[in-house]
Amino acid sequence: MYGICLRFAGETVEAQDLLQEGFIKTFQKLRSYRSEGSFEGWIRRIFINTAINVKRREMKFNVNKDIDQDHHPEDAEADALSRLSQQELLDMIHQLPLGYRTVFNLYVIEGYKHREIGKMLKISENTSKSQLSGARKSLRMLLNKQGYDHGRDR
Question: What's the pTM value of the predicted model, to 2 decimals?
C-alpha cells in the first residue's frame, strides 16, 4: 500500500501521511467488507480513493483541448523506460504536475480506464486523456533531457 501512496505523493513524508490515512479509513470501513472480491483489492481501492480525495483538495487541472489519441508509447520510449531504475522512474513521475501525475498513476500503473478516472476525479473522459497525453509528453522530454532518447543509454 505504501507503493500506491508513494506514487501519488510528492515526497516521502506525504506518502507516509497518505498511508496512515488509508489505514485509518480501512479500519473504519472494515465491517463493510463483504468478501465479494479479494481483500487486497478492497484495501487497494480504499488507498487509491484516499489518495485521490487528498489530492483533489490540492488539484486544479489545466484543461487542454488538444487530445493525443495515441495511447501506446513508441518502442524506443518503452525500451528507455525499461532501463530506468524504479527510483529514477518515480523521480520523473514526481516531477509531473499534479493532474498529470494523478492520471498517469491511475491509467498506466493502476490500470484504470479513462471513464473510471473521470468519475473518480470528477473530470471528463477527454480531460483524463488530455492529462495522460501531457504526462507522456512531459516524461518524453525528461527522458530526452537525461539521455534516454532514441533507445540510447546515458
Answer: 0.57
Distance from C-alpha of 35 to C-alpha of 53, rounded to nearest angstrom: 25
Gap between the terminal Cα atoms of the chain: 32
Q: Say how far apart CA 69 and CA 66 lie, in whole Å.
A: 9
Residue 77: how many other CB atoms lie within 10 Å: 19
Could you give the 3-state DSSP secondary structure of residue 124?
coil
Longest dimension (CA), the chain: 52
Alpha-helical (H) ranges within 84-124 are 86-94, 98-104, 114-121
| CATH assignment, 61-154 | 1.10.10.10
Position 68, amino acid: D
pLDDT single digits (tens) 15-62:
899 899 999 999 998 888 888 778 888 898 888 888 887 777 665 433
pLDDT digits (tens, 9 = 90+) for 69-116: 444 444 555 555 556 666 777 888 888 998 999 999 889 888 889 999
Q: Which grid cell sits at 153?
A: 543509454
The CATH number of domain 1-58 is 1.50.40.10: no
